[in-house]
Amino acid sequence: MRICIGVFALLLVVQGVCLAAPRVTVTPESPRPGEVLFVTLEPEQELLRAACSWNGRSYPFRFREKSGRYPLALPISADTRPGKHRATVYWKYADGAMGRESITIQVRPRDFGVQRLRLSSSQAKKYSSPDTKREKRLIAAALDRVTPDRLWRGSFVMPVEGRISTPFGIKRYVNGKFSYRHRGVDIAAPEGTPVRAAADGVVALADDSFLLHGKTIVLDHGQGVLSLYLHLSRIEVSVGERVSRGEIIGRVGQTGVATGPHLHFGVYVYHEAVDPFFWMKLPTGRGR
Ligand SMILES: [Zn+2]
């Protein structure tokens, strides 16, 4: 018996398996495409590094809360196929012990629908015009930000009171040809209607020179979560400014390519567009 235990212990050392595995929790249990997976790691001892592999990408746990927990918000792309997916958490403790744990995530089916849009050829051309490269690059750079402080507390608020004219995730055909998936929600409202910050954040981008997106604001809410506001008639904040949930940041307009006054509102997690409405009703335990 003693020999058996010895061999078992040796195997554990050789494989570097750690007995005091961290507690890993994941919510929601069965999300839909376009939603978010909240993964929390609670290590038993000092952590050297840890990451979660999800959908072909590795996301490091970089942010330690005062409680000692490491939170991570992961995007479930709108293109994710329904069915079983695996999130694998890898960790290494400061004493060299390491391990991993795989969690099966059952992604439920979701139909986003189709929208057909007619645009004049000069407007349609703007989607692929080389003149819009600069604005696409600037927006992409802003959405790439991953800053350590989580600024949002509780669910997001609707940035504008109005009618939802285009939902999130719909497949858009422009002049009969598949063009792109709609990566936010469009909220129709009269020109000049106040646009409010959906959550506490810092202004990462405020630019009034864009041909396609129009006057644009990007807010950084921290830990890879950002929100995007397009087609504004006026911008009322500047880069680096700290804003609170509900604070007015601009006005509804139809600048750039738009078929009428509306706000295009997007929420991004690690540069992946997710459903803004998910953030307005965060799962229990996430509304801190
Ligand atoms: Zn839109």
Ends distance: 50 Å
Question: Mean pLDDT score, rounded?
Answer: 90
Give the proportion of residues in helices: 10-25%
Number of beta-strand segments: 21
CATH topology of the largest domain: Glucose Permease (Domain IIA)
Q: Assign the structural class, choosing from mainly alpha, mainly beta, alpha/beta, alpha+beta, or little secondary structure.
A: mainly beta
Radius of gyration: 22 Å
> Regions with pLDDT < 50 over 5+ consecutive residues?
1-16
Total helical segments: 4
Q: Which molecules other than protein and nucleic acid are bound?
A: zinc ion
- The CATH architecture of the largest domain can be named as Distorted Sandwich
Order of helices and strands: HEEEEEEEEHHEEEEEEEEEEEEEH
What is the strand and helix layout of this fold?
Elements: H1 2-15, E1 23-27, E2 36-42, E3 47-54, E4 57-60, E5 70-75, E6 83-93, E7 98-107, E8 114-117, H2 121-125, H3 133-143, E9 163-166, E10 171-174, E11 177-181, E12 185-188, E13 194-196, E14 201-207, E15 215-222, E16 225-232, E17 234-235, E18 242-243, E19 248-251, E20 262-269, E21 272-274, H4 276-280
Parallel strand pairs: 8-10
Antiparallel strand pairs: 1-2, 2-5, 3-4, 3-6, 6-7, 9-12, 10-11, 12-20, 13-19, 14-15, 14-18, 15-16, 16-20, 17-19, 20-21
The structure holds zinc ion.
